Amino acid sequence: MTIKLFYKNTYIKEFNANICEIIEKDNTYHLQLNQTAFYPEGGGQPCDTGYIADIEVSHVYEDKGKIFHVVDSLTSKMENIKCLINWEKRFDHMQQHLGQHILSAAFQKLHDANTIGFHLSHNNVTIDIDKFLSLEDIIKVEYYANQIVFNDLAVEILYPREDELTNLPLRKQPTITDNIRVVKINDFDYSPCCGTHPNRSGEVGLIKIRKFEKYKSGIRIDFLCGNRALEDYKIKNDIINSLCSNLSVQYDEILNSTARINDNLNNLKKENKILKEQTIGFEGRNLLDNCETINDINVIRQVYRNRDFREIKQLSTFLVNTKKTIAILGLISGDKAQLILNRSEDLDNIIMKDVLKECMPLIDGKGGGSPSSAQGGGSNIDNLEAAVNLAYIQIEDICG
Questions:
Q1: How much is the pLDDT for 177?
Q2: Phi and psi at residue 159, in whole multiples of 5°?
């Protein structure tokens, strides 16, 4: 059995150990040490990383009481090897984990809301609460939790006997029956937990809820603690300062300023839509005035380059609003060829999807549609004009 130094002292950064067992697996080596300060993954907390001698430890896990450290190569020594954990990562996990205890306890005490899920990764911390709460409720919980942090309460680790355990006001019931480890935050919270935590609540630094969302029958809380919260504040503060500079306003004027910009943008979009419709109308009428005819049927065939596909579709729709009209429009955009076939409703003897089907092999493409409208795309842009002409020939055969 490996001696768990991280339970004796969570602040150990360096230690010496002997290698007891080596298992080779998937081109890596799994080392068991006689003692370790590396916390193995478990209980919702990621594992520690660091070095054994000068070899990087990428993962740590526990299997049947043995703790294994995954490395890519072996050290020449087997005994008295210097080991170093990544302290920045370890302390981050300690801050987040104790912050989670405090936040979960605050939800329970203020709203009788229980934590039913916990996730801690390198960039995200969440808890799942079994009750839906309002924004006002959550703000109160955040404030309460931070008062526990600011009061710098002592954190103790208890290993109670069975008779002692029944008298403790546990926030949740333990999932194991032997060697139950309880994290006590003064008299504020008692929680069974196998993770690592700082010795005082003040070391959490700050608890900040970033957002929340409905999750199953309750809510998922996304939050940060300590240095993560500080970094998050820095990023957001930099963004606010940049916005203030770009908009030439004070920070408390940003929302009003962006609202005005959004209103202006929406108005410009509406004006632009009207202008585009007018432009499409002018272009469409010009095409109709100068188009080819087959037995009094207007046939517009045209190939465009680097235009908005939606504009071409809009143009096609405008054209076939005129009776006895067929639009055969091609578009080359980058390395893609697109073909749009459309007809007016009165020409129901022409099945446009069948016409399109004959054209698609020319552009190495595929498509589909309905009797009145069809479209497709392919990669052979050199043959798009030939595909448009083939569509015209088919229309000519049907209507000629």
A1: 75
A2: -125, 75
Cα 370 to Cα 315, 330, 341, 351: the distances in Å are 18, 18, 10, 7
Per-residue pLDDT, 174 = 85
Residue 42: the pLDDT is 85
- The average confidence (pLDDT) of the chain is 94
pLDDT band at 146 (very low <50, low <70, confident <90, very high): very high
Predicted confidence (pLDDT) at residue 326 exceeds the cutoff of 80:
yes
C-beta separation of 24 from 69 below 8 A: no
**Residues 55/76, Cβ–Cβ less than 8 Å:** no
Query: How far is the C-alpha of 195 from the C-alpha of 183, rounded, in Å?
Result: 9
* pTM of model > 0.85: no
Strand, helix or coil for residue 203: helix
The two three-digit tokens of residue 201, written as one number: 């609540």
Helix or strand run (H / E) with residue 71: strand 66-71
Cα 373 from Cα 321, distance rounded (Å) = 13
Taking alpha carbons only, the member of 316, 339, 322 closest to residue 389 is: 339
Span 177-184, mean pLDDT? 89
Q: In this structure, how many other beta carbons lie within 10 angstroms of the beta carbon of residue 215?
A: 16
CA gap 280, 22 in Å, rounded: 74
Q: Helix-strand-coil percent breakdown of the chain, rounded to 5?
A: 40, 30, 30
Domains belonging to the chain, first-starting first, are: 3-85 (2.40.30.130), 91-238 (3.30.980.10), 291-399 (3.10.310.40)
Amino acid in the structure at residue 214:
K
Which pair of structure tokens corresponds to residue 371? 């009797």
Q: Residue 196 has which token pair?
A: 């690592």
pLDDT at 251: 87
- Is it the case that residue 1 has pLDDT exceeding 90? no
